[in-house]
Target: Probable membrane transporter protein
Amino acid sequence: MSGQEFIGYASALLVGLVIGLAGGGGSILTVPIFVYVFGIPTVLATTYSLFVVGATSLVGSLNHIWQKKVDLRVTATFALPSFVSIYLSRRFLVPALPDPLFQFNTFVLPKSDAILYFFATVMILAARAMIQSARPEQGEAADGNPRYGALALDGLAVGLLTGTIGAGGGFLIVPMLVLMAGLPIHRAVATSVLIIAVNSFVGFMGDIHHTDLDWNFLLPFTGLSIVGIFVGMYLARFVAPDRLKKGFGWFVLLVACYMILKELSTL
Model:
């Protein structure tokens, strides 16, 4: 095993650690790890990301369900609309995107590069939100009742994002559950992990019809990520959520900037 591969597998622990601590965010690390550390093609990297994040989040969600931290009604309201947009985007939209995606005279934008630019943009927006805003301890849903209609629409939007870039969307789901479902932050994090698990697996199922997978690589990486989520859930008892959120936001911003500079250097 080369030093670069060792770093990549060690990063799998970080993916699980972040999901366990923050209820999401690990998914926006997996695609850069697969692309830049292991040299995996971008579209395949998004497929691998969905499986790793789905399996890791599923293990974490079982623990949260056992502790009765998950709001199953809110989960269903948010996740069911996501199923449709995720599966359709992975099954039809992503494969149907032309390659190159855009061409004008001598300028050519391959589909893989476009996905990475979009991914980096989402990372920057997520990082900005994590750095600048403090999450409230209690939701702000009107009169304390969840806004199920708004949650369903947001589920559709997050599903499209998940399907396109292979990210679970936890950095978007947690604030929505706090503000629109009125969940306390610890329940929002726990519920988010279950939603991410279901969304990711639905997206992955949309890919297996047209993708050859390297299970000898994928399963060990996923196993290390699962170890990381147990460590993250344990450390979550001692780490202040706001401090964690801002620190991770700066890290995500640095990774996004690296991705953009890396892609621009190849033009």
In short: DSSP finds ten helices and two strands in the chain. The first strand starts at residue 102 and ends at 104.
